[in-house]
Design a protein that fits this description.
Layout lengths: L20 E2 L4 H7 L6 E3 L5 E7 L3 H18 L4 E5 L2 E6 L7 E2 H18 L1
Antiparallel strand pairs: 1-6, 2-3, 3-5, 4-5
Helix pairs in contact: 2-3
Amino acid sequence: MLKRSAIQIVKNTPCRAMATKIAESAVPGALKANSLGAWSFTEQPRPIIQRKFEFDNFAQAWSFMNGVAVKSSEMCHHPEWFNVYNRVEVTLTTHDVSGISENDLELAGFMDKLSAQIKS
């Protein structure tokens, strides 16, 4: 059992105003402009961006997910993800706008940087 002092408590923060949708035709260019070339964009059956991250072990994958969880809570923007051992598969979309928003790009960029830090 974890001691209470070992648990980081994330406080609720008010959510930002609604995100602005990026037109589907502009998403590939926005990914490139934000150096998010490892992310792929799919329009059907719904607009999403996706990426698979691979780490050396489960502890690194979990550390990545924990860091993303904190950032996501701060942003009020949460990923869809799937984890098995050292792999984390991420899907980002903004349900409020039924598509891709600046929030998705910001969170994707954060994930790329965090992944690189963990792997170094």
